[in-house]
Amino acid sequence: MTNREVISQVRGTHKLFADAIINDRVILAEVRTSAHTLINQKTNQRKLWNTDTLFTPIDCLEMETVSLGECCGYSSDMKVSRSKLTIPSIVEGNYQYLIQGVYNVGVESSYKYTPLSRFLNLLKLGLQTNDTYYWIHGNRLYVSSPYAEVVKLVASFEGDVPYDLLYPECDCAGSKKNPCISRLDEQFKCPSILIGPVITLTSQRLLSSYFKIPVDHTSNNKDDQTNIK
Questions:
Q1: Whole-prediction pTM value?
Q2: Are residues 29 and 126 in the same domain?
Q3: What is the pLDDT of residues 114-147, one digit of tens each?
Q4: Residues 60 and 45 in one domain
């Protein structure tokens, strides 16, 4: 289902939404907020992590070698890899970012997530490990190995992923292998089983925020009874 189709379904829930005062961009933002709320409930229960409809892959994220001290003020000569470009905000759950995985494109291996503070503690304690870690800092992706040239990042992002990250060769004129399309025609990142609850929650939020119509919170969310793996 595309963003445009989801917006259309939200507009169809109440005649007030046909009013042009609420444009598609506003509705899409509200839909995403509702989706993040419901998705977080499920991922915090360790559900949905294996679905392809939630995460967006950045297949070729170029990296560069930098000093570890450059990213965190930590006094060290150690070198690490950092994404050349900043990445959009990633949805955060109760325990960590909603990142399905970070992979070394060249050898098809995966890295382990750790917060930067924990990685620095490993260094201070002098613990030896064969694992390679990644973390997010300053809107950039870091990998503890200095040899990561290109990585694949698969994550749930809060908003649109820039075209220069999704399609490095795209000129937005449709003449390249991966032509840019309207944001409204992109896939709406949400598991199909949550689409109905997301539309309902968005409709309630819009009625409450823009028309001051009180929302009935007494009804049960049927999706809460759904067993999602």
A1: 0.83
A2: no
A3: 998 898 888 888 877 889 999 999 899 999 999 9
A4: no
